[in-house]
Every structure is written in C-alpha cells, then in structure tokens.
Amino acid sequence: MSIDRAGDLRDIPGILERLRADPTTTVVAVRDGRVRMDGDLLVRVGPAEVTDATWALLGRDPDGGAVLLASLAPETGSIDAAPKETWLGLRDVGGRLGDVETELLIEVLALAGWLRDAPFCPSCGGGTELRQAGWSRRCLACGREHFPRTDPAVIVAVESRDGERLLLGANANWGGRMYSCFAGFTEAGESLEATVHREIEEEAGVRLHALRYVASQPWPFPRSLMLGFRAVVDDEAAARPDGQEIIDVRWFTRAEIGSSLDGEGPVGLPGRASIARALIMDWYEERA
What we know:
The protein folds into three domains: 7-117, Nucleoside Triphosphate Pyrophosphohydrolase, CATH 3.90.79; 118-149; 151-287, Nucleoside Triphosphate Pyrophosphohydrolase (Alpha-Beta Complex), CATH 3.90.79.10. It is 22% helix and 32% strand. The chain has helices at 15-20, 90-93, 99-117, 192-204, 254-261, 275-287; strands at residues 26-31, 34-38, 41-42, 53-60, 66-72, 85-88, 128-131, 136-139, 145-146, 151-159, 165-171, 182-185, 208-219, 224-233, 246-253. Strands 1, 2, 3, 4, 5 and 6 form a six-stranded mixed beta sheet that branches. Strand 7 and strand 8 form a beta hairpin. Helix 5 crosses helix 6. The chain is globular, with a radius of gyration of 21 Å.
C-alpha cells in the first residue's frame, strides 16, 4: 500500500503547525540528500526532536498518522547520537527497503532537494514563501507560483533480434566498472518515443524497433521521472559507444547477465533500487 499524499490537507491554514503539535505525527529528517537509517529501517522521530528545519507534509501512513519532512541544513548535526543510526542516501540503502518505504524515501529526497535548491523566484529573482504545506512557493515580488519540477527521462533495455542478448553500456563516470541500460532526458517539444530513438542512436549507434513501455520510477537525481522501455535493435553490428558519455558498449548473453545479477561477474550491474536493474531482470527472467 502506498503512502497517502494527503493533498486534501495541504491548503488548510496552519496545517504544518497543527501536525507538528500532534503526538501521532512522525518526521523523516533529511540532510544533504541523506536520511537516517537503523539497520534496514527508515528512522522517524517525533516533531519535538527536530529544530531549525524547513518543513513539508509528506502524507499519511496507512494507519492515518501524518508524516512530515524536516529538511535540515547541510551543517546541522545528528538529531541524536544513537550509535547504530547512520545517514545514508538512496544509492547506499539500495534495495533494502520495502516498496512503501522506498516510495517514501524517494518523495523525501525529491521534495527536500527542491526546498533546498529553489528559494528564489526563477522569473524575477525575488524571495518566495512556502505554501500548500511545502508543495509550492509564491514569489513575494511578482506573485508567481512555483512548484517542484519533475523532468522526464527515458531508460531503455536494448535486446538482440533473437532476444537472447542484451546491449548495455559503460558510462564514463563509472570508469568501466558497471554496465547499464541507456538513458537520457527528454528535450523540449520531444515525445518519449523520439527521445528513445535519439538517445540510443547517439549513445550506442543503433536504430530500434518494437519499442514498448514497461514501467516508470521517480528518481531524485536531481528530479527525474524515469520511463522504462524495451526495444529490439535493427543492426546488432552497428553498436558502438559515443566515446564521450559512453566509453564501451557490449552484448551480453543471458548466462552472463545471470552471473552478473548474482554478483559473480563478468561486470557490475545497477543497484537493486534502480529501474535499470528492474529492466535487466525483466529481460533476463523472461526466458531464464
């Protein structure tokens, strides 16, 4: 069950103050893109345990209790000194969290990033005030309203014509240590389908057909909505890296993908929290 985002509460005057005074309310604190973890659990605290934060309403738990975000300044110390609790990011926790906790974590990181990075009006540069329980800003100078951005991006699992091999690429930022699906942002005025064809031809030199949508995933780096596709290559021999963003492309057999998913090589694959891994597993398990 997903968290209820409680949109019906956002326009109630003074709702954050009321919820901070409610003993059933819990708070997820985030600092510099990291949250506190206790083993495999996302730590929540009472509102009174947090000071000097920017607040927002995340939603309601399945039991009806409110969940708030407390966005702390990067220099703020830990709320308490419990030794087994550490501050970790989404990539650190990987696939350790359940679906509801993962959804909540991504919401926390995406909203906290916007609260931190967008204090001024992009139209006139004026200061802004938070409204709608942290989900919008109103410019104090020109009066315009601004909302958290979501940038669409595509990610594609490219398979061979017989369906027995998968084409993956090594991004320059990874130093050749990991191979993944190909991805890129949708440009202004561009459809998702056009983005898929353009990005894969730019990065891997191949044309595609049999394009189909699989699933989506919000991804707070920095504020993306990843839309996952699978597609079949036209000419397998045409595959080549662009040499800038992608330093190598390689066709992998089903056996090689299975071994890599088990952590036994021949290459590293994306972490369990990512849609890239889900697309790879979707392809692998189809005929495993």
